Amino acid sequence: MATFRKITVLSLILLTAGLLVVVAGDVSSAAKPSVNKTLQNLQSGFEGESNAHNRYVAFAQKADQEGYGEVASLFRALARAEEIHMNNHAEVIRKMGAEPQATLAKFFTQSTQKNIESSANKFEFYEGDKIYPRFIVQARAEENTDAVRTFEYARAAELQHFKLLTAALKNLEHMRGKSRTYYVCPTCGATSEQQPIHEMCPICGKPADAYEKVN
């Protein structure tokens, strides 16, 4: 009888210990912070815009060297727009309690024609049509209105950039010589080759007379 009691007590001790381990494991798992996909997307967007800014500054210099003054102006306008997107993303990242981080990738400057082609098809269209729409869906699912806004600004502007670059590629030989003026919204990065005629920016709704002149 004494032996039976010892076995029963030992069994209860082992069972209790097992339950404690299970509970402790659950608490430990619950204590781990969940991965915020929108924050990851913001960091990815910040890195992408940082690299785009650097590329366009270099591409503008190359266009100048080859005598494509108007193309150089376009690339400088795009660089300014990407800088605005970069800063917008960074603001939301900091609002979420993190610091923006970016790894600047190495890239090769080619001829102006090839620089336009890669910029239009490899970057601007892909970001505006594929990357940012996916980011927007995720940000809405997480109810992050600040992230939705900065992603929507970037998406709309990238599609504008694609159209401007595509037009430049078709008219490349007519874009030699002097520089020209482009117009960039300092709030959303909207980019236009014409002086805005509307009272509000078509992307962010801010006063159009605040557009910056870039040449």
Keywords:
single chain; 215 residues; 3 strands; three-stranded antiparallel sheet; Ferritin
Please, could you describe this protein's structure?
Helix content is 66%, strand content 4%. By secondary structure, the protein is mostly helical. The chain has a domain at 37-179: Ferritin. It has a 3-stranded antiparallel β-sheet with strand order 2-1-3. A hairpin with a 6-residue loop joins strand 1 and strand 2. Helix 2 runs antiparallel to helix 3. The N and C termini lie far apart (97 Å). The model is unreliable at 1-34 (pLDDT under 50).
Brief summary:
It is built from five helices and three strands. The chain is mostly helical and 215 residues long.
List the helices and strands and how they pair.
Blueprint: H1 2-31, H2 37-65, H3 69-95, H4 112-141, H5 145-170, E1 182-184, E2 191-192, E3 212-214
Antiparallel strand pairs: 1-2, 1-3
Which blocks of ≥5 consecutive residues have pLDDT under 50?
A: 1-34
Q: Number of helical segments?
A: 5
Task: Describe the main β-sheet briefly.
Answer: 3 strands, antiparallel
Count of β-strands: 3
Cα-based radius of gyration, to the nearest Å: 26 Å
Global geometry: globular
Task: Write down the overall mean pLDDT.
Answer: 86
Which secondary-structure class do the elements indicate?
mainly alpha
The rounded distance between the terminal residues' Cα atoms is 97 Å
CATH topological fold name of the domain at 37-179: Ferritin
Strand content: under 5%
The helicity comes to 55-70%
